[in-house]
Every structure is written in C-alpha cells, then in structure tokens.
Amino acid sequence: MDLIEKIESGNAVQAVVGLGYVGLPLAVEFATAGIQTAGIDISENKIAQINKGKSYVRDVPDENLKKVVDNGKLKVSSDFSILKDADTVNIAVPTPLRKTKDPDISYIVAAMDEIRKYFHPQMVLILESTTYPGTTEEVILPMLSADGMKVGEDFYLAFSPERVDPGNKDYNTSNIPKVVGGVTGKCTELAASIYRRAGMNPVPVSSSRVAETVKLLENTFRSVNIGLVNEIALMCSRMGINVWEVIDAAKTKPFGFMPFYPGPGLGGHCIPIDPFYLSWKAKQSGFNSEFIELAGRVNGDMPSHVVTLVTDALNRARKCVNGSKILIMGVSYKKDIDDTRESPAFDIIQLLSMKGAQVCYHDDNIEDLDEGLNVERFDYSAEKLREVDCAIIVTGHGGVDYELLVRNCPLIFDSRNTLKNFESENIIRL
Ligand SMILES: NC(=O)c1ccc[n+]([C@@H]2O[C@H](COP(=O)([O-])OP(=O)(O)OC[C@H]3O[C@@H](n4cnc5c(N)ncnc54)[C@H](O)[C@@H]3O)[C@@H](O)[C@H]2O)c1
Predict the structure, then answer these.
(1) Quick one: 198 and 326 in the same domain?
(2) Ligand 1: centre distance to CA 20 (Å)
(3) Ligand 1 pocket check for 93: Cβ under 6 Å
(4) Which domain holds residue 195?
(5) Which of helix, strand or coil describes residue 17?
(6) Mean per-residue pLDDT over the chain, rounded
(7) pLDDT in tens, 378-402
(8) Is the CB of 159 under 6 A from ligand 1?
(9) Which residue has the CA at smallest separation from atom 24 of ligand 1?
(10) Does the pLDDT at position 274 exceed 90?
(11) 307 and 262, same structural domain?
(12) In angstroms, what is the C-alpha Rg of the chain?
C-alpha cells in the first residue's frame, strides 16, 4: 500500500507533537476519526492528565478525550520514541516572541532535534506552529535533508497554519478550513489527504511560504484593524462621541465595512505576537512594515490609556489612584476562557499598582493569578462592591451579576461596552 492509500484508508499512524491549546484538539480530532494517533508532550503533567481522560483544554470535553484514550486510538507519551511507528507528524509547539520582539523558534528546533532521531523514509511532517515565512524550508528542511534524504521523494514536508479560536462556539478544529502548503506538490497532496481523512477541509496553496504568510496576514489584519478602531475610540472619547454607537450604526452597511471593536489592549498567544514574525522577516529583505509597527504601538498603549481615563474619572470624584481600591473584572485575554497569556489586564494591574492603587481581581475562570503580581481575588458581593473605588471591566465575563455591580460600585470603567444595556452615571465607557 503506498503512503497516500495508507492515509486515505485510515491505516497511517499519525502523531502530534505539542499537546496544548492547538495540539490536543487536533490529536483528539484524528483519534475520533478512527486514526491511530500518538501524542507527545514534554509536560509529564499533561501526559498524566490525558491518560486519566482529563482535558485541560476547554474546547475538548473530558468525554471526547476519555473515549479515544479508553479505546486506545490516542496514545500519549513524553518519550519521542513512540514516533518510530508514526507515518505522519504534526508539530504544534509554542512560538513566542523574545523581549526584543524577535521570533523565538527555539521550541520548534528543540522538538525537531528529538523528532529527527525517529524520522524515517516516507514520513510526512507538517508544521502547525505560527511562524515567519520560510521557517519550514529554511529551518526544518535542512535538518531533515542532512542525511541525504530528498524532500518530495524520500520524505514529505508541509506547513499548515492552525486557525483555532478558543471558546468559539461555532468554529473549531473540525470545521475551520485548513490551508496547506507543501515544499513540493506531492508534499501538499499528502498533507491535504491527512486533514481530509480526519474530516477537515484542506485548502491547498502553492508553497509552505504562502501557507506561513496566510496565517500572518490573517492575524496582522486583525491587529491593524483593532489598532485603527482603538485610535478612533480615543479620538471619539476626546470629542465626547460614543464610539460603540458609531460602530453599531456603521456595521449596518451591507458591504465594504467589517466591525472591529476597541478594548483595553490585545491579548492571547496570536494577535499581539504573530504580526511581528512577519515584520521581522520582511526587515531581512530590507522592507519596513509601517502598519504592523504602528498597530503594535497603538494597541500596546491601550492599557496605559485605560489607566489615564480611570485616573481622570477618579479625579473628577475627588479621589486619587494612590490608595484607591480598584477591581479588575476579567483577567483572561478574552471573555469566558481560562487563558491569561499576554492579557492586557497584567499591564493595567502593574500600572495601577505602580501608582499606589490597591488592586484586586474577579474572574470566574481564573483561580490564581500566579504572575508575581500583588493582587488578591475579590469576593463578589454588594457589600464588597461598595468598598471599591473603581471597577474596570477588562474582559466582560459571563456569570457575573452586572446589575449588582452597577447598583453598588461607585465608579465603573467599561472598556468593552459590556454594560451597554445600562444607563447609569457611575459608568464611564471607553
Ligand atoms: N492557542 C491558540 O489559540 C492558537 C491559535 C492558532 C495558532 N496557535 C499557534 O499554535 C502553536 C501552539 O500554540 P498553543 O496555544 O497550542 O501553545 P501551548 O503552550 O498551549 O501548547 C504547546 C505545547 O507544546 C509543548 N511543548 C513545548 N516544547 C515541546 C517540545 N520540544 N516537544 C514536545 N512538546 C513541547 C508544551 O508543553 C505545550 O503543551 C503556536 O505557534 C501558536 O502561535 C495558537
């Protein structure tokens, strides 16, 4: 049986390296489609949880995970030797930025160093981690070709960006089209067949570089448009115009306008980071990206604008930030998820603490804020809300009684228009 038949008939063994927010749903998707799947992660804790059928990713219900662990379709380990029998490998390890805003692809390189030990002829490798154009061909390809193996003949290599949106009720790993770009045409064909076999909808493109750039365009598009609307929000705030009403009316135009919303700053693993992968790479070709840098600056300044607007509001109430008790509502990077990576709440907390505020937080989804910050969990009640000088809605969270908040808290800064249905003098909107 040739490789493509093996994949299409569901007889290929597929592996996923890196079982986080991206890798775990993907591995479960493969296994649920009846494909023998091997999962690898360096975190012993994650491996132990998976083996107990306990999902640490909200979008993967325990029962779905348990089913594939119990029926043996998903086998996980921290030992890369389980790759010996794998026909395909998808890599979904982190790709953060260094402090200097340069790409940090050290996790990809570390994973590849291990994968290489078990790499064998006729294997397909697909990188899913978001990265700069050229990573697949310039970093991974040389590592695999070192022993004289030829891409497109002896092994197959492709890039397929992950587009998952945690917490999205309508779209998930199974129904988001999968862009796939191989180093050769055969690589693209094989990689696409892997996703097709798992019930996904592959969208082939001409090269891995195109596929890498697709993801960065998507996230740059978001970052730039959010940057624009953040600037418009600050403009409107200065002119006494309600930006939320402006956007709501603008979006009635049936073509040529797409609503983006202002907020307290960007968060998450993608939008604040990925555009800089693109601008970093473009710089190597002597191209300076104006939009990416500008949007990064405007969005990056939002937490400080929030603090300024809160300071002004406290001032009008004859209070100062120093010594005020300030409640941060929602510390995850968007509402109703349990991921705090890059959350703008951290910058806001830090800026307020530096000014002497006594900061506390409320978030149904975050038990502990282990970020070296001096903030306590807030015990949400009418009585406690009356003790607060200002509450800042950073990410509006379900499960919170906003009526109680509006009735009892003397001042509320709403950075997300969460309280749009409330008319009350103690509410200030971004
Ligand atoms: N989280 C998202 O919403 C999202 C969406 C689209 C794309 N992405 C991209 O997908 C990639 C993965 O992101 P994530 O959110 O799943 O990250 P994550 O931190 O949740 O998961 C990464 C996993 O890789 C493991 N890991 C690290 N080094 C490893 C190694 N050498 N070998 C094996 N496992 C290793 C970690 O233990 C972790 O479990 C990133 O490039 C990210 O930008 C993420």
Answers:
(1) no
(2) 5
(3) yes
(4) 3-206
(5) strand
(6) 95
(7) 999 999 999 999 999 999 777 789 9
(8) no
(9) 18
(10) yes
(11) yes
(12) 24
